[in-house]
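**Reference record**
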Amino acid sequence: MVYVGIPKGQADQEEEVLKTIQDGDSDELTIKRFTESREKPGALWHIYAAKDTEKIREFLKKVAEEQGQENPVDHDPIHDQSWYLDRSLRKRLHQEYGVQGWAIVQFLGDVVFIPAGAPHQASTRDMEWPDCLGSPLSVHNLYSCIKVAEDFVSPEHVKHCFWLTQEFRYLSHTHTNHEDKLQVKNVIYHAVKDAVGILRANESSLSRP
């Protein structure tokens, strides 16, 4: 979070931001960073464990049916980025499926790392799979802010990245997430190719007793 713009002389907005942070299930330490340390909050995140992805997907389909919406087979309630889990929906998700996430307020200067495959709520207030690595839900912006984001593949999470790529293949051809933006197979290929090249270049020294 490289910039947070807070308008001067708008006490009402400050109270609204505080209420949003509290309603977002933030912990006391986070609230004190805003009320006592006067740090600048830019965005509110809700991040869930990757293992709960299918439960979240099932829950969203259930809510959609309750609202009379269709669930086409070539669409996905997460990848469609059409949902935002507000407080009431988060409460239902916990009560009915036992799924509870982590509320994180990103202040000026904070960095948020999102594990591959982890559904999270992001700034468009939609349910999405944020980058191809995490699994975006949405981020709620508290003030006008500028965030710098970088996607990367860690060896520990390659399998999650691959699963996401496979899921994208089943979306409709006109879906914004249908394209394989991550190219995880190419990432794996070139990583192995580089590793083999280094081993061959040092083969003589490695064979010495």
